[in-house]
Each structure stands twice: as structure tokens, then as C-alpha cells.
Amino acid sequence: MFNDRYSRQTFFAGIGVEGQHKLAQAQVLIIGIGALGTSQAELLARAGVGRLRIVDRDFVELSNLQRQSMFTEEDAQQRLPKVVAAEKHLNAINSEITIESIIADVNNSNVESLIAGCDLVLDGTDNFATRYLINDACVKNGVDWIYGAAVGSYGVTMTVLPRQTPCLRCIFEEAPPAGSAATCDTAGVIMPIINVITSIQVTEALKLLTGQRSALHQSLMQFDVWENQWRQINPGNRRADCETCGLDLFESLSTTPAESAAILCGRDAVQISPQRPGSIDFKALAQRLRSAGEVKFNEYLLRFTTGDFELTVFRDARSIIRGTSEIATARSLYAKYIGN
Ligand SMILES: [Zn+2]
């Protein structure tokens, strides 16, 4: 029996005591603990979802605080990895649930193991490449997932039930070409649209986790909170020639993992992920780098500043290089200082 904690939720006819028990037994994966992810995580933790697995590749910065609820100035000063800061706050919000935090870049080598054991996946990412990866992994493994995105004052969300409803690839056959769509680099983003999108995503999550599929909105929902517009689009049927849910090609899962570089949205930064993740000895690396610049490290990451560049290195040898949005420049800085 639940104590008073969830009384307002168990009084709610849609959930009730039975639904609350189902939430307590559920496990949800949140990919990306930025603006969307922190809001999703807080709502699910307060609702009493029993296990939350959160994964993110980044650390907290001051410019996150405008829209990434949960993070504080202290988190930014300490440059905590986002999942570490989020786990701390989520434990303070609800100590009765289990939080599993993972510092990692989600890619084709780990996405299926991250999904394993989860009832549902929530999209908290900021890029189409990762969303196609989530879509492929979830359709292949038959795990429901909820797409969400926001830029400027506009946001969109859709719930994907593998092989029952259209998947992301059914709707968007290809990602918009780089530079053609507004990104947070060019359009910024305001927090209210984040809250609208995560409110819809998490409500859908509560319906799914309590087994009420008939209550799902069954549409592509779009909102613009500045232009005062919202639309609910019927997504139609699944496409028989969909590469993911029609032809089972799962292209993004099958490419060989390689060293990858990604420009980070709105950050003047590039992430370099080595082909073979290593295990970095921060103490030894710090000694090596001290003659070339300023070095600081904690248990999760090492920060090296040299000239106009700042390199943040994680235990697995992944690095976020700030001071450039040129992949070539980032690669050469990585090779010079971290080596591979
Ligand atoms: Zn599809």
C-alpha cells in the first residue's frame, strides 16, 4: 500500500492504486538529460516510476540553467556530468525509487544494451541521428518510445508503438539536411515549449505504463507557444516500404562503429569519440598536459585549457572540445593532446 505521497495521483481515476503499483514496477530509459530530459525525469520521479535509467554525454554549464530544470549554479560551477547532477537531485526528490545514471554517448554499440529491460524510452536528445538510432533499436526490440523535440517556441512529439503505429522513419524518411532547419544555434529555445512537450510525453508515458493504450493521443502533435498555434496531425498508416518497421533494415544499428565527431548544438564545441573507448588515467594525463596549459580533474572528467580551447575528457576517452565548431580543428587538438 502506498503512503500519502501519491494520494493525489491515486485519487485520479486514470491512475488509481492499481496504476500506481504498475508505475512502481516500471523501468524507463531517458536518453539525453538536457532540457527535455531533466523535465521528463523530474515528472516521472515525482510520479513514482520505480526505476529510471538516465544517460547523457555532457556536463552542466551556466548556459543550461535557463531551460534545463533541476540543474543549479553549483552543478555548473562543479562542472558535474549531467547525469551525476540529475541523479543527486532526483534522489532528493524521491528516495523511494532507483536512479541508474550512465555517462555515455549513445551510439550503435550501446543503444540496445541501454534499452534492455526497459518498458519505455523517452527521447530527450537534440539531434536526428540519435533519434533514428533510438527508433531502430526500439522497433527491433519491440520497446515503445516517445519522440520529442523543441526549438525556438516550437515543439513536436509523437508516440511510437513498434509495428502498431507509424515509426519515426515512416513519418520522416530522412533527416532534414544540415543547415536547412532551425537549430538551437540559430533560433534559441525558450523553456515554456520544453514544458509543453514534456507534459505530453510524460502523460503518454503514464498511460502506457499503466496499460491504457486507448487513451494515447495517436497523432503527431505540434505546438508553437509564441505564435499561439497547435496542431494534431493524423500520422496515417505505417509505410510498407519503411526501412525500419517495414523492411527491418535497421541501418543505423548496423554501421561499423568508428571514430566519430559531432558538432554540439549551440555550444561552439565538437565531441570526439574514439573508435576504441579506453580507460583514461586522469592523474597520468594531467601530469603530461601540465606543461601545455591548465589542468583540473575530478572523479568523472578532466578539463584542460590551452589558449582559446578547452578540452574536457571523460573516463572512456571521449572528449568535448570547446572553442571551435570545426571538426578538423577538434580532431587535431584531440590527436595532439589526448592521442589515440
Ligand atoms: Zn516505420
Explain what the structure shows.
The protein has 13 helices and 14 strands. It has helices at residues 7-10, 16-25, 35-47, 73-78, 82-93, 111-115, 128-141, 168-171, 184-187, 191-209, 251-254, 282-289, 327-337; strands spanning 27-31, 51-56, 98-103, 120-123, 144-151, 154-160, 220-224, 229-233, 260-264, 269-273, 294-297, 301-306, 309-314, 319-322. Strand 7 and strand 8 (229-233) form a beta hairpin. The termini are far apart. Zinc ion is lined by residues 166-167, 169-170, 238-239, 242, 244-246.
Major sheet strand order:
3-2-1-4-5-6-7-8
Shape: globular
Instruction: Assign the structural class, choosing from mainly alpha, mainly beta, alpha/beta, alpha+beta, or little secondary structure.
Output: alpha/beta
Figure out the total of helices.
13
> Helical amount among residues, as a percent range?
25-40%
Overall mean pLDDT stands at 92
Calculate Rg over CA atoms. 20 Å
The unreliable regions are none
How many E strands? 14
Estimate what percentage of residues fall within beta strands. Answer: 15-25%
Instruction: Write out the distinct hetero groups bound to the structure.
Output: zinc ion
Major beta sheet, specifics? 8 strands, mixed
In short:
This protein is 34% helix and 22% strand.
List the SSEs and their pairings:
Layout: H1 7-10, H2 16-25, E1 27-31, H3 35-47, E2 51-56, H4 73-78, H5 82-93, E3 98-103, H6 111-115, E4 120-123, H7 128-141, E5 144-151, E6 154-160, H8 168-171, H9 184-187, H10 191-209, E7 220-224, E8 229-233, H11 251-254, E9 260-264, E10 269-273, H12 282-289, E11 294-297, E12 301-306, E13 309-314, E14 319-322, H13 327-337
Helix pairs in contact: 3-10
The structure holds zinc ion.
Zinc ion binds at residues 166-167, 169-170, 238-239, 242, 244-246.
